[in-house]
Amino acid sequence: MRHLALALMLLFTLHMQAGEWIRVNLMGYLPQSLKCAVFMSQEDASVDHFSIIDAFTGQTVQTFTAAQVRTVPTFGGMQRCYRLDFSAFTTPGVYQLKAGDALSPRIRIDAHAYDGSADFLLNYMRQQRCGYNPHLNDSCHVHDGYIQYHPTKTGQHIDVRGGWHDAADYLQYTTTSANAIYQMMFAYEQHPQAFGDAYDANGRPGNNGIPDIIDEIKWGMDWLCRMNPAPGEYYNQIADDRDHSGMRLPNKDQVDYGYGPGNGRPVYFCSGEPQVRGKFMNATTGVASTTGKFASCFSLGSKILKPFFPAYADSLLYRAQDAYQLGVQKPGVCQTASVKSPYIYEEDNWTDDMELAALELYRRMGKEEFLAQGLEYGRREPVTPWMGADSARHYQWYPFMNMGHYRLAQQKGTQKEFLRNLRTGISRTFEKAQESPFLYGIPTIWCSNNLCVAMLTQCRLYRELSGDTTYQEMETALLDWLFGCNPWGSSMIVDLPKWADSPAQPHSSYTMLGAGNAVGGLVDGPVYSSIFNGLIGISLQGLPNLPAQTYDAFQPHNMVYHDAIGDYSTNEPTMDGTASLTYYLASLQHEAMAQHVYVNGGIIQTNPAKKQITLVFTAADKRDGEETILSTLDRHHIKGAFFFTGEFFEKFPDTVQRLLEKGHYVGSHSYGHLLYMPWENPDTLLVTQEQFEQDMLHSYQLLAKAGVKATDAPYFIPPYEYYNSTISAWAKGLGLQVINFTPGTLSNADYTVPQEGNYRSSKVIYDRIMQVEKEKGLNGHLMLFHFGTDARRTDKFYTGYLDKLIKTLKEKGYSFVSLEESLRND
């Protein structure tokens, strides 16, 4: 038990001495990626080497010397900071870093570290839906809305249901919604294989044959069409800051805008003229900033949605041309409106929107005049102004990254000029980043995380187009910043990863009122202390049962971040920032990920396009099927996968060795065969993360004793074949992937006994398997049987039917493949 105790000590101790910490990317690192951590100390600590420690064994696997340790600027109360470069270490596994007296949180090195992460963000988008809200299984704001600022229609009702709420409030803006739609379309265009299908069009669990991100794009696009009910008629905003009247769920929103409580909200027409801002007026000068966004969305949407909704997609191209022409006729910015407070989206640029609109129309229609016009617009703003600046007003330069420049950089005739423009913005940010140990050169204005995502995106797109890796370390550092390599050691995405520190109490009515967390939402991120101290109604209020996490010891002098539900400036998730991150996370995903079928983070079916089956077997304390099962597998030249509890490993080490000698996969079924969740409520837990991890570490200690390394057994079947998304996430934190049987065939019922009501005879099970094969096929099935069963079950499936089943399915053209082959990345 000595090695297990050491491993547990490493796993659950975040640092060994107060005053020294190591910040890492909590989500993980791809094996071939750049990998850096930041050591920080409140004392004048000297670090000239650091070590990588295996989290399962507690053994040091590699030590890096001074060449990989770089002194960097300090911040806040930290006296010394170092960047620790372990890029040369590429072995997959779960580790910790040790430098000085500090020990890092666990880190994963895994080609699949980001699998499912882009889809995970869509949880927040579904929660933000207006109209029918799948998170609440109820509808909201169904009476929207009443027109404002239209020359002839003011006061009339217009149907603008749908779309997404902008953040914790329930306002809706074309500015941010259109950008969110475009960013998700771009993510899908670039990496369609990264997105799965686990939800239907209404955002409810259950696939519908359409990738979930396409469902979300379509939801937003339908709303965008409602905000454009006729040619030349465009709307910019629903509701205003009168919405800010306390926390309530959207289906309980009774704010009265003059039409009766909860009876509809104002809808602001794109008039091209200044509109109400309380005792002020906004600085609207035209409509191009909004209609340009309409046009680029409609144009790209006509391509992305074509395979799924062909007639609908064709109609979008006509809308795109109309929106673009209105922007040409009425150049200028169309700002949002407020009534009570000074906070609006103060967008000051519009040529970037028209540039992108022109280029998307050129890409879709091939007309040279659109390319020429896009180039003219692009040359008016060579560099997005916030890049390299110390500050900017709220959403002053939006979208935060100019995708039009990227489209021009793809064109042969303009590539050199616009690659230079992209590089200039990056270079300016890079210069500022040298002042930070985290290589963070982003101005910490409101929604700084959104700016971080924009720069992250621009860095990657520039690197891929140019081949220039000068800024790759900063690019990696920005990703790491979002996932915990920052002063506070916290991920900025709610529940991603679920096994480490992430916002536990974001500024959200769902969280405040106990209706769930804002899962998948990217929070605003740090702001300058001067901004935070000047905001109205801000507080460090925590939840009743969860004090705010104020991170006092880690706050830099010039910026703050808090995990406090009362902090709407740093800890409020935003819909557009979340959507914008889908591209980068999709780019990190393993290409094969979307081939398999996932439920609650566990693989329940391998590639459905392949006519292959994998046989898996579990056991807790019985092995009566050993001889028959192994001889059957030998006869058919099949490699099975066997998952055992700790009791089995301890009782039957000879069987384990026999399986390994025959080349079968041997993995964990947990140590203690714990029941993780109550049967009547699978969304709750009966174990803590610590209990789960201790149990799994004990299991893998026995695997190691049998000669199986943790990296050789990365797949795990939970006890009782029963788990939820939290268990899957905790497993991923240990470098493990949950798998489970493919439901429907009843193969897993081969353990049942006649004396109990759930009994299924072997013939019933066989017939059911063949029925499923006939009706749906068995492609990619993980077919689970038990290695041993209760003596009361005399009708053993492995005796009377296993051989027959294999023969019959082989005759039908199925191949039986090993678990490793079925999950292989081809």
Describe this structure in words.
The chain is of the alpha+beta class and 826 residues long. It contains 25 helices and 28 strands. The strands form 9 sheets. Strands 3, 4, 7, 8 and 9 form a 5-stranded antiparallel sheet that branches. Strands 22, 23, 24, 27 and 28 form a 5-stranded parallel sheet that branches. Strands 1-2-6-5 form a 4-stranded antiparallel sheet, with no helix packed on it. A hairpin with a 5-residue loop joins strand 3 and strand 4. It is globular, with a radius of gyration of 28 Å.
Structure described in brief:
The protein is built from 25 helices and 28 strands.
Topology:
Elements: H1 2-12, E1 20-23, E2 36-41, E3 50-54, E4 60-64, E5 69-72, E6 80-85, E7 93-99, E8 102-103, E9 107-109, H2 117-127, E10 131-133, E11 138-140, E12 146-148, E13 172-173, H3 174-190, H4 212-226, E14 235-238, E15 266-269, E16 276-277, E17 280-281, H5 288-304, H6 310-329, H7 351-365, H8 368-380, H9 403-409, H10 415-433, H11 448-466, H12 472-482, H13 509-512, E18 527-528, H14 529-533, E19 559-560, H15 575-580, H16 582-588, E20 597-599, E21 602-605, E22 612-619, H17 626-635, E23 641-644, H18 646-651, H19 653-661, E24 665-668, H20 689-705, E25 715-716, H21 725-733, E26 737-738, H22 762-775, E27 781-786, H23 797-800, H24 802-811, E28 815-816, H25 819-822
Parallel strand pairs: 12-15, 22-23, 22-27, 22-28, 23-24, 25-26
Antiparallel strand pairs: 1-2, 2-6, 3-4, 3-7, 5-6, 7-8, 7-9, 10-11, 13-14, 14-15, 16-17, 18-19, 20-21
Helix pairs in contact: 1-20, 2-16, 3-4, 3-5, 3-16, 4-5, 5-6, 5-7, 6-7, 7-8, 7-9, 9-10, 10-11, 11-12
